[in-house]
Every structure is written in C-alpha cells, then in structure tokens.
C-alpha cells in the first residue's frame, strides 16, 4: 500500500525516520510531500495513494475526490476540523486522529507564553508571577489535563469547565470544577482555551464572555482561531486596557490585534505541537494506525463512524 505523508509544516526529521520505519517495516511504501506551498502539489500527490498522514493540512472535498484510491486518512494530532468528514464518509474513507500524542507539547507552550505575558513580553518592566493566580481551563481533554498538571507545579489555583466531562472527573484530578463557562471567566485571572472548533464553539469566545474576566485578565488560545469572535474581541481590547490576549494561532485580523502593543502576542506559526517528541509520538502513532488498518481492519481511532 502507498502511504503519503503530506505536511505543509513538516515533522521533525526523527519523526519522519520513525514513520518510514513503521510503514516500510509493514511492507508498505512511503512517499513524502513536505513544505508544499500550493494546493495543486497536494492534489497531485494524493492521486494514487492508499493512505495518508496529515497535520493541519486541509483534506477538503476536492482532495478527497482526487484521492481515488484513498482508504484511510490519519490526522497526526488531536483536532480534525481540517478534514471534511462528510466527504471522507461519502468516499468510504476512514478518518482517524491520534488523541493525546502531542498534548504535553501544547500544554508546555501555554506556560512558555504565559510567563512571557505576565513578564510584559520581557520589556524590562516589573511583571507578576503565576504562583497564586487563578487559572481557568476551558475543556478538560488531553491538553487541558496536562495544563492542570503543570499549573500545579507553578503553584496556581486551577479551575476547569468542560461541557462534556463530568465534574467528578475534573475534581478527581485535583482541579476545581466550576459549573459553567461564564463562571470560569468570572472567577479566573487567566483563561486557557482547549476547546475544539465545532459548530457550537466557533466564535463562542466573544465580547460578553471575555468581558467577564477580572481586571488584568489574560486570555490564552492554543486551540483554534475559529473559536474566537475576532471583531468582538478587538472591540473589547479597545475598551479594556487591562486585558491581554495571547495566541498560538494567528487570528485573521492579526494586523488589527497587533495595534494592542504590549497586550497582544501571536506566535508566527502554530507552535504548540511543534516538538520532536510530539512529532514522533503523533507521527508514529499515525503510521501504526495505518498499518493496523491494512493488517486487520482496525479502526479504533476512527472519527467519522
Ligand atoms: C492538534 O490539533 O493536534 C494541534 O493543534 C497541533 O496541530 P499541528 O499538527 O498542525 O501543529
């Protein structure tokens, strides 16, 4: 079987080596399309492949229509909003993700960004410490749980809200479970977003929600840009000079946000999962899932059931 790794943002070399070893070790063939810049390159590469591994690369209807032999597509990572699941299902293509494999990397970046933010982007002026601050985690999945673990090391008071995770599971992790998203914003100094982009969450982080943060509040996003209502957040930042917005996903209105100097920071490219460890974990998991699918039809991580 021919397996394509198509990554506009490439994996670490060690991850590619590991994927190659797995795929070829199972008697399959590996082809690589890294750092591509045009969709046409992706369309050309998918024409004759049986399986593919992607990251945030867009597998839309056109890609799935073109990939006539495709049987399985694995998103090496957690969020699969970049795959057109309806098109995959219509073409009888199994879509999978690799949950948990890159979550520690994203969680560590939250703290890299937070220290940078509370120390005023290292501008020389006195900032503040994370110890004793109230951190609110929105969604208690794999990333949220790692964020909670690390936050405790910083001596933060940690709360979480997750519409799909029972309060007793959150409490069992030693985290205070609040009753609503609004309560999280009202009671925490910093809110860290870990929600996926779904019809329910898209643009849900809006003026009213963020305006509930107390004075000096920080909103940090290492999830998806789509969950932010950008025009409303821009309006709020203009009205409240005490708020900061830190993000690992450049907003569409980056130039407008950049006007809030000293209160806004975006990484130039989404860096959350960009570590050798996360690339190796997610990439090799994806390769193993593809091998298992071809060997015995295993679809354990299918997301378009
Ligand atoms: C994920 O959903 O796994 C993360 O957002 C990482 O995405 P990336 O592989 O594009 O860096």
From TrEMBL:
InterPro entries, alphabetized: D-isomer_2_OHA_DH_cat_dom (IPR006139), D-isomer_DH_CS1 (IPR029752), D-isomer_DH_NAD-bd (IPR006140), NAD(P)-bd_dom_sf (IPR036291)
UniProt cross-references to Pfam families, sorted A to Z: 2-Hacid_dh, 2-Hacid_dh_C
Domain D-isomer specific 2-hydroxyacid dehydrogenase NAD-binding: 125-249
Superkingdom in the source lineage: Bacteria
Organism taxonomic ancestry: Bacteria, Pseudomonadati, Bacteroidota, Bacteroidia, Bacteroidales
Official protein name in the record: NAD(P)-dependent oxidoreductase
Keyword NAD: yes
Family in the record: Belongs to the D-isomer specific 2-hydroxyacid dehydrogenase family.
Keywords: NAD, Oxidoreductase
Domain D-isomer specific 2-hydroxyacid dehydrogenase catalytic residues, every copy: 29-304
């Amino acid at each position: 079987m021919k397996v394509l790794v198509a990554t506009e943002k490439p994996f670490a070399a060690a991850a590619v080596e590991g994927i190659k070893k797995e795929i070829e070790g199972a008697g399959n063939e590996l082809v690589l399309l890294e750092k591509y810049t045009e969709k046409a390159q992706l369309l050309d590469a998918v024409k004759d492949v049986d399986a593919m591994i992607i990251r945030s690369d867009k597998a839309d209807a056109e890609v799935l229509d073109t990939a006539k032999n495709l049987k399985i597509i694995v998103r090496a990572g957690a969020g699969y909003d970049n795959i057109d699941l309806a098109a995959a299902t219509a073409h009888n293509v199994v879509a999978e993700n690799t949950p948990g494999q890159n979550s520690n990397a994203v969680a560590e970046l939250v703290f890299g960004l937070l220290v940078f933010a509370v120390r005023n982007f290292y501008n020389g002026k006195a900032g503040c410490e994370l110890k004793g601050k109230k951190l609110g985690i929105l969604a208690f999945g794999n990333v949220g749980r790692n964020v909670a673990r690390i936050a405790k090391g910083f001596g933060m008071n940690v709360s979480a809200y997750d519409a799909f995770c029972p309060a007793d599971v959150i409490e069992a992790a030693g985290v205070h479970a609040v009753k609503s998203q609004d309560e999280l914003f009202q009671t925490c100094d910093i809110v860290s977003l870990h929600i996926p982009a779904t019809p329910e969450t898209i643009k849900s982080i809006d003026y009213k929600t963020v305006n509930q943060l107390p004075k000096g509040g920080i909103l940090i996003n290492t999830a998806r840009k789509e969950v932010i209502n950008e025009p409303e957040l821009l309006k709020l930042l203009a009205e409240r000079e005490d708020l900061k917005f830190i993000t690992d996903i450049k907003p569409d209105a980056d130039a407008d946000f950049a006007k809030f100097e000293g209160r806004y920071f975006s990484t130039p490219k989404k860096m959350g999962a960009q570590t050798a460890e996360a690339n190796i974990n997610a990439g090799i998991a994806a390769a193993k899932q593809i091998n298992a699918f071809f060997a015995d039809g295993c679809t354990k991580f299918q997301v378009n059931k």
